[in-house]
Design brief:
Elements: E1 14-17, E2 26-32, H1 42-56, E3 64-68, H2 72-84, E4 87-93, H3 98-106, E5 110-114, H4 119-133, E6 138-140, H5 147-164, E7 171-175, H6 180-192, E8 197-203, E9 231-235, H7 237-250, H8 257-273, E10 276-282, E11 304-307, E12 312-315, E13 323-328, H9 343-357, E14 361-366, H10 373-382, H11 386-403, H12 419-431, E15 435-438, E16 441-444, E17 482-487, H13 490-495, E18 499-501, E19 504-508, H14 510-522, E20 526-532, H15 536-551, E21 556-562, E22 565-567, H16 581-586, H17 591-599, E23 607-609, H18 611-631, H19 640-659, H20 664-683, H21 689-706, H22 719-733, H23 737-749
Parallel strand pairs: 2-10, 3-4, 3-6, 4-5, 7-8, 7-10, 8-9, 13-14, 13-20, 20-21, 22-23
Antiparallel strand pairs: 1-2, 11-12, 15-16, 16-17, 17-19, 18-19
Helix pairs in contact: 1-2, 1-5, 5-6, 7-8, 10-11, 12-14, 14-15, 17-18, 18-20, 19-20, 19-21, 22-23
C-alpha cells in the first residue's frame, strides 16, 4: 500500500521487442514509461523539480507553479500539484493534442495557449515573461534549465535499467525534448560503464513529432550537453509514425510518436551493432495521440490541389479510404499526337505517381475516342474500315506513352465499346426532361440547368451561337443547346456507322461519351477529372451538365486542368502539330529530357516549346544526373549529420512542393540546391560510400515520382569536354590556378561538375 499516487512513480517494466527486431544477435528492450501513474516519463522529472523547489524554499504554498509544456510534463506536474495542494498554470502551443489539454484541465491546471507556428519556443517565451513580471505570483519549474530534470533519470531511470538488464548493456536510445532523459541516463551509464553508447533520436527541422525538439530550430535547453552523447540520429515524421503503428500491431504496445522515433533509431542501432543489448525509452502511450494523424483510421494525404470548379486550392480528400479514381480525357485517334498534347498525360502521371508513393491505390481511366467526326472522315478518306484506320495511331499513342515514362492506365475504354451506355444515359435524360429529340437528333436542354458554365465561368446567356456545336446541320429549340446524339449522314450510314434507335440512326457526341464512360468505370462523384484547359468549355461544362442532370449528384470531386503548350517556331516547323515525339528525338533530345521539359513548368502555367527551353531542360537534367553518377565514385569520409540533413531536405522539399498543387519548379529548384551541397561534399572529400548510397536511395525515392533520372549509367563526355578536362589537369599540375579556375567555370557552364583531388 502506498501513501499517495506520487509514490507509484518509477520502477516501470522493461519488455523485449521480438517481432520487429531484425537482428538475431541483438536483444532490444523497451522501457515502458507510460506505466507511470501520470502516463509518461515526465512524472519523474516533475516530482524531482517540485521536491527540490520545496527543499530550497523557492516553492511556497502561496505561489502558482508555472511551466512551458507540450503536455506530458504538465500532466505530471498537475498530478503532483494536486496531491501537494499547489495551483498550476501551463503554457503550450495551440496544436497540442486535445487529449492532453483535456487531461490537464480535468486535473485542475490553467491552460495558456500560444501560437502553433512558434511551437514550444512560444510557450517558453510566455512563461518566462509571466515569471519575470510577477515573481511573487509564480514559481517557474523551468524544465529546460533545471538540473533536477536530468537528475531524476540519473538517480531513478538509469539504475532501474541496469538492474533490469542484469548489468549487460551496449546502448540506450532516447528521444530529445527538454533533453533531461538523455542527459541523466548518459551521465549515469557512463559513470557505470563508459562503453555504453547513448544514442539520441532527434527530429529534423520542421518536424511534426509532438514533444520533441530539433536543437537547431528551437531554443536549446541549458541542461543539454552534446558531448555526453555518442551519436545523434535524425528521424523523420513518417518513419516515427509508421514504427509507432507497427509497435501496436506487431508487439501489442500502444505507444506515442516519440516512442516510434526511439524504436526506429533502436532498430538502426541494432543493425549497426550486430551483437549486444539495446534499451529504447518509450516516453508515453498512444492514447494521447488519438486526435492526431498518428492513429487516424482514414489514411492522411498531403496534397492541396487547385480545383478548377471551385477556383481555389483545396485539401484533397479521397472519396474512399485507400482507393482513388481518376479520369483523363483521352485522344481522338485520327492521327499521331503532337508533343504538346502529352502535357495532360505527363501532369496526370505525376499526380498518380505522387499518390501511389503515399501508398494509395489509383484506378486511372483514359478514354479513347474512336467514333467521332475526325475518325470517321479519316477512315472514309483512306477507304479503309474504322478499326484498320485507328489501329496504327492507337499503337503509336501507347508507344509514345511508354517512351515518355507514363505508367499505363488501368483502363483505356473505347467510345465504340460504350455505345449502349450512352444510349441508356440519353434515354434517362429524355425521360427526366433534360433532353429532347428534334429531326432525329437528341439535344440537351440548357434551360434546365441553372449552374451551367460554373467550371469555365462562361455566362450561358452570352454564349456565342455555334460555340457548342455546328448549327448549320441541326434544328434545335434553343441554339445554345448541345448535341447528345447526332443523326448519321448518308455516307456514314453506307459505312454501317451509327446505332438504330427510337430516334433513328444516330451516333453519340464526345460530351456524352466522357460522361457515360467515366461513370461506367468510376461511378458518380469520383475523385479527380484531369484534362487540358482548352477542354473546359464547352466539353467539360457539358459533361457536368449531363452527369449531374442524370444522377442529381456531384459528378466529380476535383477538376484539375493543365495549361497548353505554346510553340515559338524555333524548331524549323511552322506549327506544333508537326512536332511529334519522333521529331524531337530526331533533333537530339532524348525522351527523359522531353519528359523533364514537360514537367519543368507548373501545370497551371503555359509551357513554351522552343529550342532554348529544351536545351535548358537537358542542361539541368544533365547536371543532376552527373551528380548521381558521381555518387557512385566517391572515396571520402561521410559527415553523417550533413548527409542526413541533405536527404531530409531533399525528401521534405519534394513533399512540400508536390503537396502544394504539384509545384514542380519548386521541387526542381530544391533539387538543384541539394546537388550543389552534394557536389561540395564530394569536392571536399566529406562523402564516403555509405553516405553516397543514402543519397542515391534518396534520388531513387524522388525518381519514383518524377521518373526522369538516370542511374547506373556511365556518362560519356564529348571530345571538347575531355580536352578541357585534360587542359585543366595540366594547369593544376603546373600550379596555374588562374587558368584552372577559368576552365572550371567553362566546364560548369557546360553542365559538367568538377571534383578536384589533391595535386
Amino acid at each position: 500500500m502506498l501513501p499517495s499516487i506520487i509514490d507509484a512513480i518509477g520502477n516501470t517494466p522493461l519488455v523485449e521487442i521480438r517481432n520487429l527486431n531484425p537482428v538475431p544477435g541483438v536483444k532490444i528492450f523497451a522501457k515502458l514509461e507510460y506505466m507511470n501513474p501520470g502516463g509518461s516519463i515526465k512524472d519523474r522529472a516533475a516530482l524531482y523539480m517540485i521536491n527540490q523547489a520545496e527543499a530550497s524554499g523557492e516553492l511556497t504554498p502561496d505561489k502558482t507553479v508555472i511551466e512551458a509544456t507540450s503536455g506530458n510534463t504538465g500532466i505530471g506536474l498537475a498530478m503532483i500539484c494536486a496531491v501537494k495542494g499547489y495551483k498550476l498554470a501551463l503554457a503550450m502551443a495551440e496544436n497540442a493534442s486535445e487529449e492532453r489539454k483535456r487531461i490537464l484541465k480535468a486535473r485542475g491546471a490553467k491552460i495558456i495557449l500560444t501560437p502553433k507556428h512558434l511551437g514550444s519556443d512560444g510557450a517558453i517565451e510566455e512563461v518566462y515573461r509571466l515569471a519575470r513580471e510577477h515573481p511573487g505570483t509564480y514559481f517557474l519549474t523551468d524544465q529546460y534549465n533545471n538540473d533536477a530534470n536530468w537528475q531524476a533519470h540519473y538517480y531513478t531511470t538509469g539504475p532501474e535499467i541496469l538492474k533490469q538488464v542484469g548489468g549487460t548493456l551496449n546502448a540506450v536510445v532516447a528521444t530529445v525534448g527538454t533533453s533531461g532523459t538523455l542527459m541523466g541516463l548518459s551521465r549515469y551509464m557512463k559513470s557505470q560503464d563508459p562503453t555504453i553508447r547513448m544514442v539520441c533520436a532527434e527530429p529534423y527541422l520542421g518536424h511534426g513529432i509532438q514533444g520533441l525538439k530539433n536543437m537547431k530550430e528551437s531554443y536549446r535547453p541549458e541542461i543539454y550537453d552534446k558531448s555526453v552523447l555518442d551519436a545523434s540520429v535524425y528521424i523523420d515524421d513518417d518513419t516515427a509514425f509508421e514504427t509507432a503503428r507497427q509497435l501496436a500491431t506487431a508487439e501489442g504496445l500502444f505507444v506515442g510518436m516519440s516512442s516510434g522515433a526511439a524504436m526506429a533509431v533502436a532498430l538502426a542501432e541494432a543493425k549497426r551493432l550486430g551483437q549486444g543489448v539495446i534499451v529504447a525509452i518509450f516516453p508515453d502511450s498512444g492514447e494521447r495521440y488519438l486526435s492526431t494523424e498518428l492513429f487516424s483510421v482514414k489514411k492522411q494525404i498531403h496534397l492541396n490541389l487547385y480545383n478548377s470548379l471551385s477556383h481555389e486550392k483545396e485539401a484533397f480528400e479521397p472519396k474512399g479510404d485507400n482507393d482513388i479514381g481518376i479520369y483523363t480525357c483521352g485522344p481522338t485517334i485520327h492521327r499521331r499526337l503532337h508533343i504538346g498534347q502529352f502535357r495532360r498525360y505527363i501532369f496526370t502521371d505525376l499526380l498518380i505517381r505522387y499518390l501511389e508513393d503515399q501508398s494509395f491505390k489509383v484506378n486511372h481511366v483514359v478514354n479513347i475516342t474512336d467514333y467521332d467526326d475526325k475518325v470517321l472522315e479519316g477512315a472514309l478518306a483512306a477507304r479503309v474500315p474504322v478499326h484498320e484506320f485507328i489501329q496504327p495511331h492507337l499503337d503509336t499513342f501507347h508507344s509514345d506513352l511508354t517512351r515518355l515514362g507514363i505508367r499505363p492506365a488501368q483502363a483505356y475504354p473505347r467510345m465504340s465499346g460504350h455505345l449502349s451506355d450512352m444510349m441508356d444515359l440519353t434515354r434517362q435524360l429524355v425521360s427526366q426532361g433534360y433532353a429532347y429529340e428534334r429531326l432525329h437528333s437528341v439535344y440537351f436542354d440548357l434551360s434546365r440547368v441553372k449552374e451551367y458554365g460554373r467550371l469555365s465561368r462562361v455566362d450561358v446567356n452570352k454564349i456565342r451561337i455555334g460555340a457548342t456545336v455546328d448549327l448549320d446541320e441541326y434544328e434545335k429549340q434553343n441554339p445554345r443547346d448541345f448535341t447528345l446524339l447526332k443523326r448519321v449522314r448518308l455516307s456514314e450510314l453506307k459505312q454501317g456507322v451509327g446505332m438504330k434507335t427510337e430516334w433513328g440512326n444516330v451516333r453519340p457526341s464526345v460530351h456524352l461519351q466522357c460522361a457515360a464512360i467515366s461513370m461506367a468505370h468510376l461511378g458518380h462523384g469520383f475523385d479527380i477529372h484531369t484534362g487540358s484547359r482548352e477542354l473546359m468549355f464547352p466539353h467539360h461544362d457539358n459533361e457536368i451538365a449531363i452527369a449531374q442532370a442524370a444522377t442529381g449528384e456531384k459528378f466529380v470531386r476535383v477538376w484539375s486542368h493543365c495549361d497548353p503548350v505554346r510553340y515559338d517556331g524555333s524548331l524549323g516547323r511552322h506549327t506544333i502539330e508537326a512536332l511529334t515525339l519522333d521529331e524531337l528525338t530526331g533533333m537530339g533530345w532524348d525522351e527523359n529530357v522531353i519528359r523533364f521539359w514537360l514537367l519543368s513548368a507548373h501545370h497551371r502555367k503555359p509551357l513554351l516549346l522552343s529550342r532554348k527551353s529544351l536545351d535548358d531542360a537537358a542542361s539541368i537534367l544533365t547536371r543532376i544526373n552527373r551528380c548521381i553518377n558521381a555518387l557512385g565514385e566517391v572515396s571520402g569520409v561521410s559527415k553523417e549529420d550533413e548527409v542526413q540533413h541533405i536527404t531530409y531536405e531533399m525528401l521534405q522539399s519534394m513533399t512540400l512542393a508536390l503537396a502544394d498543387d504539384l509545384k514542380t519548379p519548386v521541387l526542381i529548384s530544391g533539387l538543384l540546391s541539394s546537388v550543389r551541397k552534394i557536389n561540395r561534399l564530394i569536392s571536399n572529400r566529406r562523402l564516403g560510400p555509405r553516405g553516397a548510397q543514402r543519397l542515391l536511395d534518396c534520388f531513387k525515392g524522388i525518381d519514383r515520382v518524377l521518373n526522369v533520372f538516370t542511374f547506373n549509367k556511365k556518362i560519356h563526355y564529348s571530345q571538347e569536354i575531355k580536352s578541357l578536362i585534360e587542359e585543366r589537369d595540366a594547369a593544376r599540375r603546373a600550379h596555374d590556378w588562374e587558368t584552372a579556375d577559368k576552365i572550371r567555370e567553362t566546364l560548369e557552364s557546360m553542365g559538367v561538375t568538377v571534383h578536384d583531388k589533391k595535386v
